[in-house]
Design a protein that fits this description.
Strand content: under 5%
Helix content: 55-70%
Shape: elongated
Number of strands: 0
Number of domains: 1
CATH architecture: Orthogonal Bundle
Order of helices and strands: HHHHHHHHHHHHH
CATH class: Mainly Alpha
Distance between the termini: 8 Å
């Protein structure tokens, strides 16, 4: 296992990793501190004025110094909505990955350790799941949910629904990763020793094998957060994600798309830039973690 000193040295010697880490840190802090730093609360109707709608950025003719990135069609400052929207996108992405990890790690651990018909059944189930498009399943589930309940109920439970739908649709990636690691670990001496002293399978799986499979789980988690955010943005752009009055980055892009050809390009452009930067930073960090934590690619960091 790579030491913390070696891990830090690798990070500080890689300009791409440093850049991606700084971008991600800025975006996370921006999202977390939005209630304290945002010039405007886009959820508070008392702070909105329809007369401020579609104002250009402050440096453009007709701009207002209160809104340095301009405003949208509802009079909300684009910078404020980006801060709040980044938080919602991160919440959905991280929440969906937690659901994926809980399901995938549990089923992958059981499949790899038990083997036999249990392994065959769970892996065939994973094959079926992987053969279906996550976006297609999410569209069907969320469209049915929207049709079954009114807009207010959907708005209240949109975050929970997106987390559950994306999480349940993506669990096979964790399951297959964990299963492959467990197949290699279960034949090692420490597992045989645990069986000899009479430890039950549950303790062997969770207390001994699982800690040795967490490295690939960490890598895939980083990449899956980016993918979950991208899926949510796609659903929101299609009108099946977050409602416009509770914007994520995807719903912000959608809300401004109809105005982009009328000259109000800033409503869509700036949220799109932040979304691309967020996904790119997560993917670059995931790729860097994969290289660093792969023992075949390390050269004496320990």
């Amino acid at each position: 296992m790579i030491s913390f000193k070696g891990f830090l040295r690798r990070f500080l010697s890689d300009p791409v990793a440093i850049g991606a880490g700084l971008v991600l840190l800025v975006l996370v802090l921006m999202a977390v501190l939005a209630p304290f730093l945002a010039p405007q609360d886009p959820y508070d109707l008392m702070q909105l004025d329809i007369m401020d709608s579609e104002l250009p950025p402050s440096w453009k003719p007709g701009g207002d110094e209160r809104f340095w990135l301009g405003t949208d069609a509802q009079g909300r400052g684009v910078f404020s909505t980006i801060m709040y929207g980044t938080g919602i996108s991160l919440l959905i992405g991280i929440g969906a990955v937690i659901v994926q990890a809980v399901l995938g790690v549990t089923l992958g651990l059981i499949a790899g350790y038990k083997g036999g018909w249990i392994d065959s059944f769970l892996m065939r189930l994973a094959d079926i799941q992987l053969s279906l498009s996550t976006l297609m399943m999410a569209i069907i589930a969320l469209a049915l949910f929207q049709a079954a309940f009114d807009a207010n109920i959907y708005a209240d439970y949109a975050i929970v629904m997106l987390i559950m739908v994306i999480g349940i649709a993506e669990w096979p990636k964790f399951a297959r990763t964990v299963r492959s690691s467990v197949l290699g670990e279960r034949k090692k001496e420490y597992v045989d020793a645990a069986r000899v002293i009479g430890l039950p399978p549950r303790k062997i799986m969770w207390g001994h094998i699982l800690p040795n499979t967490l490295t690939p789980v960490l890598v895939i988690s980083t990449i899956q957060v980016a993918e979950a955010i991208m899926i949510e943005a796609s659903l929101s752009f299609l009108g099946l994600g977050m409602p416009v009055d509770r914007p994520s980055l995807g719903s912000l892009i959608r809300s401004g798309f109809e105005f982009i050809f009328s000259g109000s390009w800033w409503i869509t452009l700036y949220p799109a830039i932040v979304l691309v930067a967020l996904i790119l930073a997560l993917n670059l960090l995931g790729d860097w973690l994969r290289d660093v934590l792969n023992p075949k690619l390390r050269r004496g960091e320990d």
